Inverse folding.
């Protein structure tokens, strides 16, 4: 190879490494607000706030509202994470009530960095409804 070709190859390699590091290591939370995820089912709207989606144990804050604006009366709320591209599934975390329509989980949701799906299961008097939202998880 010629010297200019080696320089081009080195520059391309360095650029690829930089992009990979940026995508896997750049924290996704922006300030103290964290990441806010939203979704809906037939009867409920759900918001999940993750202070910092990473492969470490943490907390998730879940807010549930009824579409008909009636009081939220749920018997159980769980949060489960799945990484479809790798076939990973984490055990569901049971959320504890934290006020009217508010719930919290504590524990490890994610095994590694990458694209995950969070499923919120809402068990109430009329049955179970689920809301699934995508989330990108950072390595740190």
């Amino acid at each position: 190879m010629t010297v200019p070709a080696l320089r081009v190859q080195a520059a391309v390699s360095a650029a690829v490494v930089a992009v990979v590091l940026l995508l896997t290591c750049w924290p996704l939370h922006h300030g103290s607000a964290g990441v806010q995820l939203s979704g809906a089912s037939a009867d409920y709207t759900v918001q999940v706030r993750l202070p910092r989606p990473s492969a470490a144990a943490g907390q998730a804050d879940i807010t549930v509202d009824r579409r008909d604006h009636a009081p939220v009366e749920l018997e159980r709320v769980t949060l489960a994470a799945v990484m479809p591209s790798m076939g990973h599934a984490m055990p569901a975390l049971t959320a504890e009530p934290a006020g009217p329509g508010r719930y919290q989980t504590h524990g490890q949701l994610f095994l590694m960095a990458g694209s995950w799906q969070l499923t919120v299961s809402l068990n109430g008097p009329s049955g179970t409804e689920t809301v699934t939202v995508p989330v990108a998880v950072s390595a740190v």
Observations:
- The chain has one domain: 28-137.
- The two ends are 39 Å apart (CA to CA).
- Strands lie at 35-40, 44-50, 58-66, 76-83, 88-89, 93-94, 96-99, 102-107, 114-124, 127-137.
- Residues 14-32 have pLDDT under 50 and may be disordered.
